[in-house]
Amino acid sequence: MYYRRNVDAHLMEWSQREEHKPLLLRGARQVGKSTAVRHLGERFSTYVEINFERNPEYKALFASNLDVGRICAQMSAMYGKSIVPGKTLLFLDEIQECREAVMALRFFWEDMPMLHVVAAGSLLEFALDELPAFGVGRIHSLYMHPMTFDEFLLADGRQLLLEARDRSSARAPLPEPLYGKLVELFRTYMIVGGMPEAVASWVEHQDFVRCQEIQDDILTGYEDDFPKYRKRVNTELLRATLRSVASQITRKFVYVEAGAGYKAADVRRALDLLCMAGLVIPVTHTDANGLPLGSEADGSFRKMLFLDSGLLLRMLNMTVGSVAEITTLILTANVADLVNKGSMAEMVAGLEIVRNQTPNLKYELHYWARQARGSQAEIDYVVARDSHVLPIEVKAERQGGMKSLWGFMRDKQLTEAVRCSLENFGEFTFTDTEANDAVRHVTICPLYALSQLLRQA
To answer: CA–CA separation, 225 vs 424, rounded Å?
Structure first.
């Protein structure tokens, strides 16, 4: 059964354009890229899928020259289906295995502009990084991530609950039974995560152990890929760095914690490769004095998020031996403890921010922290909204933990902010007596409704 993905609408829109550049679908392994393309292929008269990893013999077609007319004719003969511009969707999967095929994408646009061509690959970023140019301006990219909470709800048959949530707001909060159900499902989502195979297993069996077996297999597959990253990078270092990311989630990444004997420069290189592969998502410090946030970003101060919350729990289980306490906290703690204790809620908030952005661009996450020695002031995420900086704090209480937010808003002269928690929808204002009684407004955006906030951005 196919579960609807946010990227589907973008794929459909691309397929219906009169002018459609070859499309690169980018993202980590196992996030559902191939499945989404096959679903799109059902709308075409013919669908041709070439997987260069499974069928390496097709690489020879690109070896002599990049005449795409010849390549398509020979590909049709080998595949047994005609490739007809305007009627065929040609899917080149695991295209990183054939660099010449990557180079050929630009010529599909120049010489066969009516043919719909999609390419994807789990380690595609490495191939693109090694090519001096592969068709800038002639290729369109879409970025795909694990499933959002909204996609999880739809897969689980919760369309009506999702619609009820989307009708709610700070002035019209959810009825208590619906609020309780969304919190319960969000707890489940934190453990199952958004990897499509794990979600499908949960929908069918409602069994966490089955999901964990799938997550373990995915992690094993990721580590099996490590030798492909770069031959000069030690696979044990990559493994140690990935485990270190898991143990340092949402705090400033410290290179020496990756393991004794590794140089900081080598760990940094390994970390960059993990980011390229999509297994790790950096959150970069910014001074946040204005937009774009990246103009004041400092890459020497970064926090790291794991690709997926379900995979994080399995990685932590390998690293620390048991995550029973964390799992119990997720499933049973009151909403304040679940948000305030540990870093899982903060990480999932960051993942939801990334996953709910338009797939046309690779989104960059930012945070802010006061750099003064001994300062504890930090804002979990800062994003752009309506041409302004919008701070987002993942907190469960109005008092105490909001001090950093008030101070940030005062320093940056901001009037709007978001507190992200597992509360119901709400809002409140604060009269800042230290800043000429300036009125500051804070919207309470539940973790289970971050997509709603981002749709307004």
So the answer is: 42
Q: What average pLDDT does range 358-383 have in this prediction? A: 91
Distance in angstroms (rounded) separating the CA atoms of residues 180 and 417: 25
Give 9-14's long-range contacts (Cβ < 8 A, gap of 24+).
Answer: 10/142, 10/358, 10/359, 10/360, 11/36, 11/37, 11/40, 11/142, 12/40, 12/43, 14/140, 14/142
Would you say the C-alpha torsion 278, 281, 285, 288 has a positive or negative sign? positive
Question: How far apart are alpha carbons 385 and 400 in whole angstroms?
Answer: 26
Residues paired with residue 286 on neighbouring β-strands, in sequence order: 297
- Which stretch, 359-363, 394-398, 430-434, has highest mean pLDDT? 359-363
Q: Per DSSP, what are the bridge partners of residue 439?
A: 431
* pTM beyond cutoff 0.85: yes
Q: Running DSSP on this structure, what letter comes out for residue 25? A: E
171-195 residue pLDDT tens = 999 999 999 999 999 999 999 999 9
Mean of the pLDDT values across residues 404-428?
Answer: 93
Q: Kind and range of the H or E element at 15? A: helix 7-16
Q: Give residue 456's pLDDT band: very low, low, confident or very high (50, 70, 90).
A: low
Q: Which of 447, 439, 419 is nearest to 348 (CA)?
A: 447
Residue 229, C-beta contacts closer than 8 angstroms, at least 6 positions apart: 123, 126, 235, 238, 273, 277
